[in-house]
Design a protein that fits this description.
Elements (H helix, E strand, L loop, with lengths): L2 H22 L3 E2 H10 L9 H10 L3 E8 L2 E9 L1 H25 L3
Antiparallel strand pairs: 1-3, 2-3
C-alpha cells in the first residue's frame, strides 16, 4: 500500500469543501486560495486547483469576475453563489457526521 497516495487522496476528497469554505468568506483571487491551501497542507500541486475551480464554475457553485491589475494581466476573482452556499452547508453537515463517525471508530479500544 502506498501511504503517500492514500494521504493525497484523502486531501483531494476534502479539497472542494475547503475551497468553497474559503470562497464563502468573500471574493478571493486564485493565488490567495493556493496560499491558504498550501499553508494548511491541503494542496500538493497548483494544477489540482484550476480544474476544480472550473468544475465549481460549471456547476454554478462559484462565479468569477475579471479585475484589471496595475501589475500585469487582469485577475479573476471568485465568489460563492447561492447554490454554492447551499452545497457548502450540506458538505459541512456531511463533514460533521464524518468526524463523529471517525471519532467513534478511532476511540474504541
Amino acid at each position: 500500500m502506498n501511504l503517500t497516495n492514500t494521504q493525497v487522496q484523502m486531501r483531494k476528497g476534502l479539497l472542494e469543501y475547503c475551497v468553497l469554505q474559503i470562497i464563502s468568506r468573500g471574493e478571493v483571487y486564485t493565488s490567495d486560495l493556493i496560499e491558504e491551501l498550501t499553508q494548511a497542507q491541503m494542496i500538493v500541486v497548483e494544477g489540482t486547483l484550476y480544474p476544480l475551480l472550473n468544475r465549481l464554475k460549471s456547476s454554478a457553485l462559484v462565479s468569477y469576475r475579471w479585475v484589471e491589475s496595475e501589475a500585469g494581466p487582469p485577475r479573476k476573482y471568485y465568489s460563492i453563489t447561492e447554490e454554492g452556499q447551499a452545497t457548502l452547508k450540506s458538505l459541512a453537515e456531511t463533514w460533521k457526521a464524518l468526524v463523529q463517525s471517525i471519532n467513534q471508530i478511532t476511540k474504541k479500544k
